[in-house]
Amino acid sequence: MSLSLGQKPSWYLKRWFTPELKSQQLEVHRARRRRQDSCAAMGPAHSTSMALFENMRQKRRARTRAIEMAKSIHWREFLDKAGEGHLWKAATYMKPRNSFSTNPLLTVGTDKLTDNKDKAILLTELFLPKIVEAQEELVPPADEIPWESITELGIY
Questions:
Q1: Is the pTM of this model over 0.85?
Q2: Which superkingdom does the taxonomy of this entry point to (predicted)?
Q3: Smaller CB count within 10 Å for the chain: N or C?
């Protein structure tokens, strides 16, 4: 497989991924491999292994923060360029994905309900029957069943 550097980047490429992030990725992988080698040689409880683990964790966290920063910068640049012909593409990302997130306006007589809580109360009253509270009936206790003692002859 040959690589040509003059080609346009693929749509599927992570455009926010920078050479700095690549170098951080390599550092994190090196730190992880150093720790793994140390654990294999001396055990995970050894002080050197624990120090290497802490070093790896710090580098991994720094890389995660750098990725988040690169993504946010890329997103801001994308939205800033939205006025230059990418407006509709940006608008699709800014719209909520869930079409059920906004309920339509309900009209009752002259009142218009816009709040979702008011709409829920109205629909509950319309579609669900009112619960009638059960009246407690006093039921007299049943007569006790007579007890007959069991004998040894009755068992066999």
A1: no
A2: Eukaryota
A3: N
